[in-house]
């Protein structure tokens, strides 16, 4: 048996989203089983299955440093505070 | 809802009852099929079969749920028109899978003869059924393709196919009123004319089979020993309170 990841997309602009995973004997059965397991009530109208072994997985260490970069969070509050301060000084 | 003669009604019931009971048999694998994905797929297919049966019942009695239930679950045993093949409860997965393939390949031949039916509503149902049955056959064929490559699985499946073969012949045993249905153009030809083609498909799939004789189901007027228990399971909830309103 091969493990597959299942992705579904609804009609319209929604992107493909991960729906779940399943085991199947081959690619065609994976599509049949995905259709009946994840799209049986028309949860999506487009379907991808991807062999899990074909997913390229990044190491945790490769991704995790980005969790400590507050300078990449642009909520604008620092700039707004500075402009407010300058306005008050000018008035 | 359509008005038909008792003979045509009997003919239509034979198609619906086969679908109804094979759907029930498939659905009883919920939770106990060999693996989760197959569990879901097989029961979804069973649910489709129940849906197809309901379309024909609705054709006969209209869209009133109670009337459909009465027809589906409330007839006396001798009023059902199923073949014995769908009345058998198989507790071996191999037998259920083989029946799935045998029933769906035969059923495809039967519905092909209904596509030009003189009953327009039935022809429309035939088109809808085929749209869904394509996937049922894809499922059965793919699973068998995979399993028949394995020597042990292949031996189990071929043995099951030989045990089931005589019962499967009963699918082609029509109700007596089939001749009336052919004469009136409800169906283009007797189902038995598809038998040889179907046997070739079955032997191509499973190898030579010991066909034996079909069961003595008297043109579907007699029920098999297993039927009473099957109907009992199907009526289990409704019989808790026959007058309950849901």
Task: Explain what you see.
- The complex is a heterodimer of chains A (91) and B (246).
- Chain A has 91 residues and is of the alpha+beta class.
- Chain A is built from 3 helices and 3 strands.
- Chain A has a 3-stranded antiparallel β-sheet, with helices on one face.
- In chain A, a hairpin with a 7-residue loop joins strand 1 (2-9) and strand 2.
- The relative contact order of chain A is 0.17.
- The mean pLDDT of chain A is 90.
- With 246 residues, chain B is mainly α.
- Chain B has one domain: Ferritin (Up-down Bundle).
- Chain B starts with 5 loop residues before the first helix and ends in a 12-residue tail after the last helix.
- The model of chain B has no long low-confidence stretch (mean pLDDT 95).
- At the A-B interface, strand 2 and helix 1 of A face helix 2 and helix 5 of B.
Q: Catalogue the unreliable spans of chain A.
A: none
For the record, the CATH architecture of one domain in chain A stands as Roll
Rg calculated over all Cα atoms of chain A:
23 Å
User: What is the residue-averaged pLDDT of chain B?
Assistant: 95
- CATH T-level topology of one domain in chain A: Ubiquitin-like (UB roll)
Radius of gyration of chain B: 17 Å
Most extensive protein-chain contact, per-chain counts: A-B, 14 and 15 residues
User: What is the terminal separation of chain A in angstroms?
Assistant: 73 Å
Major pleated sheet of chain B: none
DSSP, total strands of chain A: 3
Q: Helices and strands of chain A, in N-to-C order? A: EEHEHH
Q: Which fold name corresponds to the CATH topology of chain B?
A: Ferritin
How many helical elements of chain B? 9
The proportion of residues forming helix of chain A, as a percent range, comes to 25-40%
Q: Kindly report the average pLDDT value of chain A.
A: 90
- Please state the oligomeric state of the protein chains shown: heterodimer
CATH level 4 superfamily of chain B: Ferritin, core subunit, four-helix bundle
Number of domains of chain B: 1
């Amino acid at each position: 048996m091969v493990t597959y990841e299942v992705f579904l997309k609804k009609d319209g602009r929604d992107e493909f989203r991960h729906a779940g995973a399943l085991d199947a004997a081959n690619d065609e059965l994976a599509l049949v089983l995905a259709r009946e397991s994840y799209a049986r009530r028309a949860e999506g109208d487009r379907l991808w299955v991807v062999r899990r072994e074909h997913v390229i997985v990044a190491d945790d260490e490769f991704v995790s440093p980005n969790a400590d970069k507050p300078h990449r969070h642009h909520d604008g509050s620092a700039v707004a505070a500075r402009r407010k301060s300058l306005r008050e000084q000018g008035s | 809802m359509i008005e038909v003669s008792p003979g045509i009604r009997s003919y239509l019931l034979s198609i619906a009852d086969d679908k109804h009971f094979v759907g029930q048999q498939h659905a009883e694998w919920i939770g106990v099929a060999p693996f989760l994905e197959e569990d879901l797929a097989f029961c979804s297919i069973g649910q489709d079969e129940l849906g197809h049966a309901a379309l024909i019942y609705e054709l006969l009695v209209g869209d009133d749920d109670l009337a459909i239930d009465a027809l589906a679950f409330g007839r006396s045993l001798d009023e059902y028109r199923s073949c014995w093949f769908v009345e058998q409860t198989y507790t071996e997965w191999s037998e259920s899978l083989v029946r799935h393939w045998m029933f769906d390949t035969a059923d495809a031949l039967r519905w092909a003869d209904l596509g030009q039916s003189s009953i327009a509503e039935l022809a429309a149902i035939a088109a809808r059924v085929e749209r869904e049955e394509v996937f049922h056959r894809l499922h059965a064929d793919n699973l068998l393709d995979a399993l028949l490559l394995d020597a042990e699985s292949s031996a189990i499946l071929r043995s099951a196919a030989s045990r089931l073969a005589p019962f499967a012949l009963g699918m082609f045993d029509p109700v007596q009123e089939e001749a009336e249905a052919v004469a009136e153009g409800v169906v283009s030809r007797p189902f038995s004319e598809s038998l040889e083609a179907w046997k070739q498909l079955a032997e191509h799939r499973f190898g030579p089979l010991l066909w034996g004789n079909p069961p003595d189901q008297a043109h579907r007027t007699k029920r098999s020993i297993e039927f009473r228990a099957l109907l009992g399971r199907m009526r289990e909830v409704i019989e808790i309170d026959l007058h309950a309103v849901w």
